[in-house]
Specification:
single chain, mainly alpha, three-stranded antiparallel sheet, globular
Length: 401
C-alpha cells in the first residue's frame, strides 16, 4: 500500500533544520497541556491523600525530566542500532513483563508496576516500543515474503503470543489489544494481503472475548459500559461521573481550574479520565482543538515516515508508522472510554494523563521519530529496499526475525 502525503509545511527553512520542528512544537504543546491538566485535575485528591496540592504534578514533572533525558539519549543512537538489536530489546521487554508478575506491585487488582526505588515503572509501556521496533525490523527484512506467504506472518505468533500471555496475566487487556491493533496497522501499510487478517485477527478477538466472559471483573466492566445506570453507585459510577464532567463543559467550558467533578467526584481524574476534566474545563471547542492537535502530531509522523521511505529508510519508515498508529489508537481509545464509547481499558491519554512510565516512553518514541527524520534529511541511504533485503549480513539478535 502506497501512502502519498503532501508536506505543505516543508519549506526551504524547514529542510535546513535537522528535524521536524512542527512535530516538536506540537508535542511540547501536548506535554504543557498535560502538566497543566495534571495539576488542575489532581489538586483535590492530592491534598486529600498527601496533604499537598502538587504531589502528582511534581511527580509528573520529574517523570518528564527523566523522559527528556532518555529521549536525548535515544536520539543520539543511530537507527541501525535498533534495527540490529531489535530482538534483544524485545526479549528484554518480555523479561520485564515476567519480572513484574513475580516482583511487581499490585494496585487495584492488577500487577503492572516494578518498584525501581525512584519510580514505579510499568514494563507494558516499554513493550509497546519494543514490539513496534521488532515488527518494523521483521517486515523490512521479510517484506516480499509477508506479501506472498501467510507463514511469514504466522512466524510472529510465537513471540507475540508469549507477550500477550504475559500481559493478560497482569491482567492488561488494553495494552494487548492496542499492540495487536498497531501490529495489524503496520502489516497493512507494509502491503500484507487483507485476507490474512481474517485468519489472524478474528481468532484473537474471539479468544479475548472468551476471556472477558469468563472473568467476572472484565464482564462487569463491559456490562457497566453498555448501561452504567444499572449500577450507578458501583461498576457504573466512574463512567457516569466522567460523562457528567464532559457534559458540564458545554460549548466553551467552565474555565481552567473550575471543574467540579475533580473534587473527589470522579475517582482518579488525573489518570485515565483526565480527558473528561479537560472537556469540563475547556468545553466542546477545547476538545475539538485537542483532537486537532493529536491529528496534527500523527500527520507529521506520517509525513516523516513517507519521506524516510523515499530516502530508502524502510525500517525507520515502518517504525515511525507504528509509533504514529500507537499514539493515534491510544488517544482514540482513551477519549472513547471517557465518552462511554468503549469499555474501560486502563490506557492513558498520550503525553497528558498522569503516568510516569507512559510519559517517559512516549518521549523516547518521539525521539526515535526525530532520529529517523534526522538521518533521512542528512544521510540519504544510497541502497534501495530491494538491495537491503538481499543483504546477507547476519543479524546479531537471538530471535530469528
Amino acid at each position: 500500500m502506497r501512502i502519498r502525503i503532501k508536506n505543505v509545511f516543508d519549506t526551504p527553512e524547514q529542510r535546513a533544520w535537522p528535524f521536524d520542528y512542527w512535530l516538536v512544537g506540537a508535542v511540547l504543546v501536548l506535554i504543557f497541556l498535560g502538566l497543566t491538566m495534571v495539576l488542575s485535575s489532581s489538586v483535590a485528591i492530592s491534598e486529600h491523600r498527601f496533604g499537598s496540592a502538587t504531589h502528582y504534578f511534581v511527580r509528573q514533572a520529574i517523570a518528564l525530566g527523566l523522559g527528556l533525558v532518555l529521549a536525548l539519549a535515544a536520539f543520539k543512537v543511530p537507527i541501525h542500532f535498533w534495527q540490529t538489536h531489535r530482538g534483544k530489546l524485545f526479549i528484554f521487554g518480555l523479561i520485564l513483563l515476567l519480572l513484574v508478575l513475580i516482583f511487581g506491585r499490585e494496585i487495584g487488582g492488577a500487577k503492572r508496576w516494578l518498584n525501581l526505588v525512584v519510580i514505579n515503572f510499568q514494563p507494558a509501556e516499554l513493550i509497546k516500543i519494543a514490539a513496534i521496533i521488532f515488527v518494523a525490523g521483521y517486515l523490512h527484512r521479510h517484506l516480499s515474503a509477508v506479501k506472498e506467504d501467510f507463514n511469514a506472518i504466522m512466524r510472529l505468533s510465537l513471540p507475540f503470543g508469549l507477550m500477550a500471555l504475559l500481559l493478560l496475566l497482569q491482567p492488561d487487556y488494553g495494552t494487548t489489544l492496542l499492540i495487536a491493533a498497531v501490529v495489524t496497522g503496520m502489516l497493512i501499510i507494509s502491503g500484507a494481503p487483507w485476507r490474512y487478517f481474517v485468519l489472524t485477527v478474528v481468532p484473537v478477538v474471539g479468544l479475548l472475548a472468551a476471556l472477558v466472559l469468563y472473568s467476572p471483573y472484565r464482564l462487569a466492566r463491559v456490562l457497566s459500559f453498555m448501561d452504567p445506570w444499572q449500577d450507578p453507585f458501583g461498576t457504573g459510577y466512574q463512567l457516569i461521573q466522567a460523562l457528567i464532567a464532559s457534559g458540564s463543559g458545554g460549548f466553551t467550558g467552565q474555565g481552567l481550574g473550575a471543574s467540579i467533578q475533580k473534587l473527589l467526584y470522579l475517582p482518579d481524574a488525573h489518570t485515565d479520565f483526565l480527558f473528561s476534566i479537560f472537556a469540563e474545563e475547556f468545553g466542546f471547542i477545547g476538545v475539538l482543538g485537542l483532537i486537532a492537535l493529536f491529528a496534527f502530531v500523527v500527520w507529521r509522523m506520517f509525513v516523516i515516515a513517507t519521506f524516510a521511505k523515499q530516502q530508502n529508510y524502510g525500517f525507520g519508515s515502518l517504525m515511525v508508522y507504528g509509533i504514529a498508529i500507537w499514539i493515534a489508537m491510544q488517544a482514540m481509545i482513551n477519549m472513547g472510554v471517557n465518552l462511554g464509547l468503549f469499555p474501560t481499558k486502563g490506557l492513558t491519554l498520550p503525553f497528558m494523563s498522569y503516568g510516569g512510565s507512559s510519559l517517559m516512553m512516549l518521549c523516547v518514541a518521539v525521539a526515535l521519530v526525530l532520529r529517523v527524520d534526522y538521518e533521512a534529511r542528512l544521510k540519504p541511504n544510497p541502497h534501495t529496499e530491494q538491495e537491503q533485503e538481499q543483504d546477507n549480513e547476519p543479524d546479531e539478535e537471538p530471535i530469528k526475525a
